[in-house]
Amino acid sequence: MNATTVTGADTTAMVVSNKSNISAKTQKPSGLCARLAYGTANCIKLFGFGIAAAGIGTPLTVGIVNISQLLGYVPDVDLETMCKLKPMIANPIGGAAIGLIIPIAEEILFRGLVQDVLLTRIPKYIVKKTLPGKETVFDAKIAQAVRIILTAALFSAAHSLNDGTLPDSYVKAQLIATFVGGVGLGVLKESASGLLSAIGGHSANNLASIAYTLYIC
Questions:
Q1: N or C: which end of the chain has fewer CB within 10 A?
Q2: What is the CA radius of gyration of the chain?
């Protein structure tokens, strides 16, 4: 019977070889085209995650708005009021603006600038310079919750500017919807998926609203 002896040098070589194989599998592409393809695929994945999340967030938001209407906190939005919005969303330009352009702009402004820059990066930088080591307080769950809620409240308040342009009952319902939805989008922004997922979720929500309005009208 032959016995195989594994020396320390052999073991070390095997470990180094395994690490090299793992590194090769996880290493990002180095060529320009390969990196563009990798970046595009990653962006699509993150955007798609936001769309999938909207599958939960949008029905939840609609449910909370409906409960608010049943309790009398906001007026009902009747069919006639909903159908007044049809000319705005039925044309391709209006649909593209509401379904994609506006979500991108609003997410960059609220979840990107307000939530990330104004409520996270700038305060964290100031604390880091004045009280080194204490800046980690902004990574705590309570700090994340506070900036998510503050941003959602500002996001909701901004939609009050639609008053006078859109029907009154619709605007009041929208204030509830944008706060609840804003919390969900803020959670997406704070997750590893980041801003692209928030944009995907916002876009999916708006497109679902467009589809529903066109269907019932």
A1: N
A2: 24
- Helix residue spans in the chain (DSSP H): 8-26, 32-70, 79-83, 86-90, 92-96, 102-107, 122-130, 141-158, 168-190, 194-216
pLDDT band at 38 (very low <50, low <70, confident <90, very high): confident
Residue given tokens 């269907």 in the structure block: 215
147: which residues sit within 8 A by CB, 6+ positions away? 115, 119, 120, 186
Cα distance between residue 186 and residue 110, in whole Å: 9
Write the DSSP string, 107-161: HIIIIIIIIIIIIIIHHHHHHHHHSTTGGGGGGSHHHHHHHHHHHHHHHHHHGGG
Query: Mind listing the pLDDT tens digit for each residue in 143-197?
Result: 999 999 999 999 999 999 998 888 899 999 999 999 999 999 999 999 999 999 9
What φ, ψ does residue 166 adopt, rounded to 5°? -110, 160
d(CA 66, CA 84): 20
According to DSSP, the residues that pair with 166 across neighbouring strands are 163
